[in-house]
Design brief:
Order of helices and strands: HHHEHEHHEEHEHEHH
Strand order of the largest sheet: 3-2-5-6
Largest sheet: 4 strands, parallel
Distance between the termini: 32 Å
Number of helices: 10
Number of strands: 6
Strand content: 5-15%
Length: 221
């Protein structure tokens, strides 16, 4: 695994890449990709950072694990490749955007268009074995992505963090809420959404209102 990550992130995360835990993680991931089918493809492991550069960052959306089905994961949380049918959580995200902002439901579930506008679509774990959810958890990824969140919190200001579901809400302790804007709700998965914990959260219009207030260009969702 080459750490194929944009220079802007390399500069602020250099201590992580040099840390012993990260070197062990790289060894583990290389071995897994050699001997197992893993996702996303190797070149896309750091896509979230390559589409959204550190200096352009406006919004952080935290997911847990990459999708573990064939051709789904592309290195961006909640996102799937063009032409791939939309997973249930993504369907509910798009339905909420439709209700909140009146934007028609999109054909493509590829969220590169969001990432290029300054949204970091960050999974806590950046790799997974095919058809084995959680198989790369507790190998070092969570430590790395927690440091990413802390680095953003310390070095940036006026970032909107969208924390959906219990797992993402645990990251609240890493964020300086005096400098940043945090919105929380239930997870968009059907289990949570159908119980009324997702729909109507209006996170997309609220994100844009906050950005406008800070004279930051809003997101075209």
């Amino acid at each position: 695994m080459n750490v194929n990550i944009h220079e802007s992130w390399k500069n602020v995360l250099v201590d992580e890449f040099n840390a012993p835990y990260f070197k062990s993680l790289v060894t583990f991931v290389k071995s897994e990709y050699k001997t197992q089918t893993c996702f996303p493809p190797g070149k896309q492991i750091f896509s979230a950072f390559n589409y959204c550069h550190f200096e352009d960052l406006k919004v952080v959306i935290i997911g847990q694990d990459p999708y573990h089905g064939i051709n789904q994961a592309n290195g961006l949380s909640f996102s799937v490749n063009d032409g791939v049918s939309h997973p249930p959580s993504l369907i509910n995200i798009f339905k909420e955007i439709e209700a909140d902002l009146g934007i028609p439901y999109p054909e493509s579930g590829n969220l590169e268009r969001w990432a290029k506008q300054g949204i970091l679509l960050l999974n806590a774990t950046l790799t997974v074995r095919a058809h084995q959810a959680g198989s790369h958890q507790k190998k070092g990824w969570e430590r790395f992505t927690n440091e990413v969140i802390k680095t953003i919190s310390n070095k940036k200001s006026n970032i909107v963090f969208l924390l959906w579901g219990g797992f993402a809400k645990q990251k609240l302790k890493l964020i300086d809420t005096q400098k940043h804007h945090v919105l929380t709700s239930g997870h968009p998965s059907p289990l949570s959404a159908n119980r009324g914990y997702w729909f109507g959260n209006k996170h997309f219009s609220m994100t844009n209102s906050y950005l406008a207030e800070k004279n930051i260009k809003s997101i075209n969702w």
